[in-house]
Design goal:
Chains A, B: Keywords: Decarboxylase, Lyase, Pyridoxal phosphate. Chains A, B: Belongs to the group II decarboxylase family. 2 copies of one chain form a homodimer. Chain A is of the alpha/beta class. Chain A has 18 helices and 11 strands. Chain A is about 45% helix and about 10% strand. In chain A, helix 6 packs parallel to helix 14, helix 8 crosses helix 11 and helix 14 packs across helix 17. Chain A is globular.
Chain lengths: ~550, ~550
């Protein structure tokens, strides 16, 4: 490559060469590729989550807002990336990174993703994607089959039909949820007589036509934040996403749901969509989908299931019963970049009825002509890459039985960890795992004892200090860079609905061992005691409560 | 890899191994990777656009909706992908593929994209992306600088500020446009007294509060179809996206824009956004942005510029003046996967005012906490990959001057081709290139002569047949797989606004040569004559018109 000669200098000739296929594997680019692979392998084998550099320090390397005037050598820039970016990135695939839904990826995806990048197909239309279009339609068919289990004749009819679609592949769960609710909104406010429908005439005129006082979307209080975003984008308004209270297992309360529906009807507010959560982001619990489907059916609501995270569990016949009722949903969101182990950027919404997407169909003159099989005529996004290919490859190479093993062992590991936490005198489980997600916190033994006998005011104070301690431990552990759990806020019934900070753990990574889990707890215990501000104060309060109580207890027992 | 032994069989041990780093470069996976690279290089060196298999034939390979029960060998599945997918995909990077905005990619992106895939960062939050967050903010800063050219102090203040954002990286131009209009809508219908704003209360209550009869978005009739989609999603309604007529150069007519604004005001309809197009998708023309900015300013409209395709031209000081006025836009869409030569999935919306994104800010308990620098608090998408890295690398390695050369030569090539078309007696230019996009059609010489003297009815018939011929040529050329141009429908003034099918050519690929351009025309001419249905009929009609006219002409000249 001329661009690699003595001095990087832009010339048309050198620029042309960067677009041509490198001839030999021992070319400059070949050597650089090897160096990158070696560096990446070293990085990925290190089980360190992130080095201790602070964000402010890292920002110094990324502070110049000028596009560089002169070109750089590929080798020089690669060195910069390896040194300043790779080394300062988060090791999301580390078996010690158990705080979020990213996991290690199967290594076969690295060479295969080369196909995706190099071919650079645009799946918006067949002219720029050809075989990638039927492939994506097949992947959507497989997912549809996984959820709805229709017969072969069904898929023969609809999978490759130009006028229909079994779903939409998209960049992630948020776009999938927006798409589902967009379809639901447009179907609820469809054309009617002289009114051309909300898609054509907009929400204001639609509401006047239908005479509703307002619209509403119903979901449990554990619904994902993307649903609020959807309600905002779609013009429904965040307030109209109504949060239904949950039971002690973080599942929507059917009685409260019924009450809300009745109240809305009385107020002439139209609840056009009901959302079931199959794997809440914060606690991993699954709503009673069957009971919800009954209500949605009765009330004529679109029933959407947000299974962005939990949907992959359908690949396991062991876990499948936990999602009972999902096959009655009008639409389902599933992210393949979560428990299906493909790289970021693989969301999907699947529609039960292949003609439902007509509510959002779009056409244009130069592409997406009517009758074409262009995927872009029913997606929120326009130009898109060939990401479905990586899911296709994973489904084939791992197979359903392989996925079943992976998913079952992640649930078993979560149950193991839940038991391990419960066995510790100074930890407390907050939500037990239904799939592979659980929450807990650190509570010194004496604080547990004190809390049990404390007055309501004392409980508040203890609780506040425990919250501060949880935040301290989580932050310090993250900064230390050895282990990572995330943190969220819940309102557990057994803590009288008090706002409670908790550690959140997702055990999706197949490489996470029991030793690592023990190590996570040991480190947290150790960090807790390092908190020179919170810990001593908390212990002092606990002891004073216990001491004040001691004489009485003694008196009672000696009587 | 155990999964590669005699029979693929899912066992926990074999599954664990697919998640661990392969030890040696001569491992099974190493060998597969080499095979893929060789196959891809062969494919990319072949300048064939697509093989002749029909879509229906290809669909047969992608028709099973069952997730395979058993795992497959990586090697077997790779073979399937190379044979059935790669070989049947579209060679978008071929220098003969000049019909859409995809081009060849610089080869250094192949090894670098490995970093992106292997690290699998989630840029929604710092906890899962660390250095990728400042990198993405810097890229947005560079693009902001490219458009708005603020001083260093500006970027020092805002580029890395937690409460601000210079833009949003997203999967493509459609999401970018939706984001811009979402911001515009929420700002236009913001909180006011007891009214909490459209984001909270929804569009129906917002409209009642503000007392508007309706909303409107204004854009020229050449606006991209994603804008209609945006109007639908955002609850504005497609009808409220008002198409303003264009002049003979496909640019918005300012007089018509003024008329429309006045009319809307009279009807109490609020035009809250005006969209300038900087590079229309169909003809590549640029709206008079300065004049539009004046009107937007005067009327208090959000001024958005859709420069998804044309925005890259700002990297060239030669082309920059053509986009004069873009620096007055409130927001700008630019796709890096178009003329910035990075792979699919790199859209951006840039905001002039760093606090504008507060109109769409979202928070959640477990991530995106207030005060954090998490990118996800102001993006439409949630979880996202580290695509900004590839744009960062390209900007550094190619440099502004390198981009300038690439962009300038693509414009020069389009001008060359435009001249070449004009020189042919049997072709007709429909829209000349302003950047590197032009449209034209095939018109036999005798048809040109006949058209000039035909009656209005005869013109209609000739026109209809020419349209049919254009469609025939474009389809047949695509099917032949040697060259590819796209096709769209325009209403040129010089053809009395008749609906006209045209060939559409985008000359972004640096490897497209003058010989190829000549070959494209030669092939089209040749295909035209093969049309046994349209061509003879068209020629017969033209000849009859010319013959009928001949005696008169003769009589006149001999008089």
């Amino acid at each position: 490559m001329v661009i690699e000669t003595k001095k990087a200098k832009a010339s048309l000739e050198s620029l042309h060469r960067i677009f041509t296929v490198p001839e030999a594997p021992n070319s400059t680019l070949g050597t650089i590729e090897q160096a990158i692979s070696q560096n990446l392998n070293r990085f990925l084998q290190d089980h360190i989550i992130a080095t201790e550099y602070s964000l402010t320090e890292i920002e110094k390397d990324f502070c110049n807002a000028n596009v560089p005037e002169q070109p750089s050598f590929v080798s020089d820039h690669t060195e910069f990336l390896l040194d300043k970016l790779v080394a300062q990135s988060v090791h999301t695939s580390s078996p010690r990174f158990i705080g979020h839904m990213t996991s290690a990826l199967p290594y076969f995806l690295m060479p295969l993703s080369k196909i995706m990048i190099a071919l650079n197909q645009n799946t918006v239309k067949i002219e720029t994607s050809k075989a990638f279009t039927p492939l994506e339609r097949q992947v959507l068919g497989m997912l549809h089959n996984l959820i709805y289990q229709q017969d072969d004749a069904f898929y023969d009819s609809w999978m490759h039909s130009a006028e229909h679609s079994l779903g939409a592949f998209c960049s992630g769960g948020t776009i999938a949820n927006i798409t589902a609710l967009w379809v639901a909104r447009n179907a609820a406010l469809k054309s009617d007589g002289a009114f051309k429908g909300v898609a054509e005439e907009g929400l204001f005129r639609a509401m006047k036509h239908y005479g509703y006082e307002d619209l509403a979307i119903l979901v449990s209080e554990r619904g994902h934040y993307s649903l609020k975003k959807s309600a905002d984008v779609l013009g429904i308004g965040r307030e109209s996403l109504i949060a239904i209270p949950t039971d002690e297992n973080n599942r929507i309360r059917i009685d409260k749901l019924e009450e809300t529906v009745a109240l809305l009807k009385k107020k002439n507010i139209k609840p056009f969509a009901l959302i079931g959560v199959a794997g809440t982001t914060e606690t991993g619990n699954i709503d009673p989908l069957d009971a919800m489907a009954d209500i949605a059916e009765r009330e004529g609501m679109h029933f959407h299931v947000d299974a962005a995270w939990g949907g992959a569990s359908l690949l396991s016949n062991t876990q499948r019963p936990k999602l009972k009722g999902i096959e009655r949903a009008d639409s389902v969101t599933i992210d393949a970049h979560k428990q299906m182990y493909v790289p970021m950027g693989a969301g999907m919404v699947i529609f039960k009825d292949p003609s439902l997407v007509s509510a959002i169909e779009h056409h244009a003159d130069y592409i997406l002509r009517k009758g074409s099989k262009d995927l872009g005529s029913h997606t929120l996004e326009g130009s898109r890459g060939g990401m479905a290919m990586l899911l296709f490859a994973s489904l084939n190479i791992i197979g359903r039985q392989g996925y079943e093993l992976l998913i079952d062992q992640s649930v078993e590991k979560a149950e193991y960890f839940s038991n391990l936490v419960s066995q510790q005198s100074d930890f407390e489980i907050i939500s037990k795992p239904e799939l592979c997600l659980l929450t807990y916190r650190y509570v010194p033994e004496s604080v547990k004892q004190a809390y049990a006998i404390a007055t309501s005011n004392q409980k508040d104070t203890l609780h506040e200090q425990l919250n501060a301690l949880t935040v301290f431990i989580q932050k310090r552990q993250r900064e230390a860079g050895q282990n990572f759990v995330s943190r969220t806020t819940l309102t557990p019934t057994h803590l009288d609905g008090r706002s409670t900070h908790v550690f959140r753990v997702v055990l999706a990574n197949p490489l996470t061992t029991k030793d690592i889990l023990q190590d996570v707890l040991d480190e947290q215990r150790c960090i807790a005691k390092q908190s020179t501000l919170v810990y001593p104060e908390l212990m002092a309060l606990a002891n004073s409560i216990l001491l004040a109580d001691a004489p009485i207890t003694q008196a009672l027992t000696t009587e």
